[in-house]
Amino acid sequence: MGILVQSLNLNGSLAANVRAQGVENVNDVMISVAYEAATMPEIFSDIASKTPFSFVYDGQDVDAMTPLTLRYDNQSVADVLIEVSRLSGLGFKQVNNSIYVKNRHTKSKSRTVEVVIDQPLSGKVTDQESGDPLPGVNVLAKGTTVGTVTDIDGNYRFTVNDEVTTLVFSSIGYEAQEVEVGGRSTINVTLVPDVQKLEELVVTGVVTGTPKKKLGFAVEKIEGDLLQNVPATNVASSLAGKVPGLKISAGSSAPGSNPDIQLRNATTIFGSSNPLIIVDGVLTEGNLSDINVEDIASIEVVKGAAAASLYGSRASNGVVNITTKRGTGLNEGSSEVIYRTEFGQSFIPFVPQKTKSINVAVNENQVDYDSPSPDGVYDNPYPKLTDPVDQFFNPGRFMTHYLAFRGNSNQGKTAVFSSVQYTDEAGVVKLADGRQRTNFRLNLDHNVTDKLKFSASNLFARNIIDNRADGIWDMFYYADPDVDLLQPNDDGTPYKVNPNRINPRLANPLYNIYNTINNTDRNRFIGNYRVAYDLLDNLQISAAYGLDRIESNSFGLNPKGLLRADNPDLRQPGSIFESTSNTFAQTLQADALYFRQWGDFNAKFRLQYLHESNEVNAFSGSGTHLAVLGKDVRSLEQASEDINLSSTITSVVANNYSSILQLDYKEKYIFDGLFRRDGVSLFGPNERWQNFYRISGAWRITEDMELPGVQELKLRSSYGVAGLRPPYSAQYDVLFLTNGTINPGEDKKETPI
């Protein structure tokens, strides 16, 4: 709670003020004094001894002043101080029963005496409908920064000065209320629920935020609190089981890998089935593995073509729209700090069992691999079985630390949400480091004026990923049932390179992990910046710029001199590869939103222009037969054979225009219509522009008739068209240039579509 002291300036005389209990006013306390060449400290000490007031001053301001001579009989303390002020140049401020002395350094004959008298206010805030006490209600002295919040029982208590005339009560989900003080010290208030704010609003595929019950099509919404109930280091994994018909399949079990998301049945014979991912208004090009689950306020999932048609040629697989948290959700003048930590372990749930018998002779507890069984049947039990699962896997830990700050300024002019998160996900394969991710987020909302608003959303994510466990499953799965992966090589180095007897050419996966390098460093920045201006009471224009920038660098090294599984007497020549990839996706959007009410009719209309550009620049190189030994090799120049270089530059540009209209009558009969036209460089020259549209309607039956036990019954119908963008090779002949030789692509088209 902060208190701003306000003052009443009086010259010559002071008006009477409301008196707080135990506090006197310098206007009301009478005194008689007679001073002859008295110093300032002597005067202050004399007045303090005759009144309830005490003086607070800096000795350097008063000690060197000229002594004063004055006489007053039965005059107020205020009159005495005004005369002292006139003669000395000092100023006085009464705050409760303390009088503060200040050297004003002025020769004005009119001196100022200020009086501030605080008064305590208290009361209780309750819900109008239930009568229950309301904790966390913001109570603010209007026009000041003085305020407090109600406790768990709905009670509040704080002190204001006697000039405060109005208190403002506000809380999320309730209508704000202003109450006149009117000389009272106890003020009890009941707040009315704000029905509009309590309704579940949908922002995906609609004109503007719309209550879910007023939609003519289906949109699923999952609140952020529900996502955090289940431990998950990936947003996609946290969605599992929360959306009907949603399929989540792991493309890889490696830490940091992005699961595939399928909202609808297959809609294309090429490309991915993953939906369009939108984060705070940014049409992203990456995956969900960089997003903090803790930062999410809500996720809206759109499966049907009608609901997704607003996104035109990018929405054939549906849309997942993520909205992150912001400071605007807090009461004005309040803030909060959140810290969350999570620890856990990952386990291998199931590994197929291997045979416990072999089809060779077993003599004296030894397997004689050179003596096959006469019958060839696998019925000779291994004398000793190892546990390769325990040798190769271990319970992989994962750990997250999350710190966030939310704040909303007084009068709600500026709101901020910021967070930092560190995630360490080791995975289940021994020796591999898994993934470490560090995220920074800053969301800002600022009301420049009553009509002009600015908002910004920023996310920076850094990933360091160890890929050494990729592609080694077969080495483990096909290993001998009695193999010992932990035994050393003949030269004493760890993890024998060829521990298998049935398939001696099969290398020990732990040897490869221990001796090689394969990692990826990825940096990603997602930003969205929006300016909105209320041109009229019912007309808003806005512009937004969004970007998704991904920089990825991968490096792999099989050092020269490693043992060969097929012949341990020989050494590997070594190999190296390095790749870089930069993706820069940008969007520029302009909108005009108009809404109007005619009697019982409500209309909302939006026009939108969207420009998209996506550039990808990739380079990779590899080679074998390295010049030097060891893991310190970092240059491709070390390779002397099988040198391969590859580079790719792609650029996609799109211009999109859309309009959408929503009408309703008494909020019972609802109509929605949408038209979008996309011009995309990936479309052939004869089909450069494509049209997408939607029409939907709904009848809220329970608004026309009461049905026992039914709160909401709605009949709706919708039809819409959404599409996808073909790959580059679907439009033109594709030729591959390899080592100076041009080769035709396997999937080329003879003519553009």
Folded structure, characterized:
- This protein is mainly beta.
- It is built from ten helices and 42 strands.
- Strands 24-29-30-31-32-33-34-35-36-37-38-39-40 form a 13-stranded antiparallel β-sheet. It has a five-stranded mixed β-sheet with strand order 1-7-5-6-3, covered by helices on one side.
- Strand 29 and strand 30 form a beta hairpin.
- The chain is extended and about 130 Å long.
- It starts with 7 loop residues before the first strand and ends in a 9-residue tail after the last strand.
- The N terminus and C terminus are likely disordered.
SS class: mainly beta
Helix content: under 10%
Q: Termini separation (Å)?
A: 67 Å
Content of β-strand: over 45%
Keywords:
753 residues; mainly beta; 13-stranded antiparallel sheet; five-stranded mixed sheet
Would you spell out the secondary-structure blueprint of this structure?
Elements: E1 8-10, E2 30-38, H1 40-50, E3 54-56, H2 59-62, E4 68-76, H3 77-88, E5 90-95, E6 98-103, E7 113-116, E8 118-127, E9 138-141, E10 147-149, E11 155-161, E12 166-170, E13 177-180, E14 189-191, H4 195-198, E15 201-202, E16 210-211, E17 220-223, H5 224-227, H6 235-239, E18 247-249, E19 260-262, E20 276-279, E21 282-283, E22 296-302, H7 305-308, E23 319-324, E24 334-346, E25 357-358, E26 360-363, E27 366-372, E28 380-381, H8 388-392, E29 396-408, E30 414-425, E31 435-447, E32 452-466, H9 473-477, H10 509-515, E33 517-536, E34 539-558, E35 575-598, E36 601-626, E37 639-665, E38 669-680, E39 689-700, E40 714-720, E41 735-738, E42 741-744
Parallel strand pairs: 3-6, 5-7, 8-14, 20-23
Antiparallel strand pairs: 1-7, 2-4, 5-6, 8-11, 9-10, 9-12, 12-13, 15-16, 17-22, 18-19, 20-21, 22-23, 24-29, 25-28, 26-27, 29-30, 30-31, 31-32, 32-33, 33-34, 34-35, 35-36, 36-37, 37-38, 38-39, 39-40, 41-42
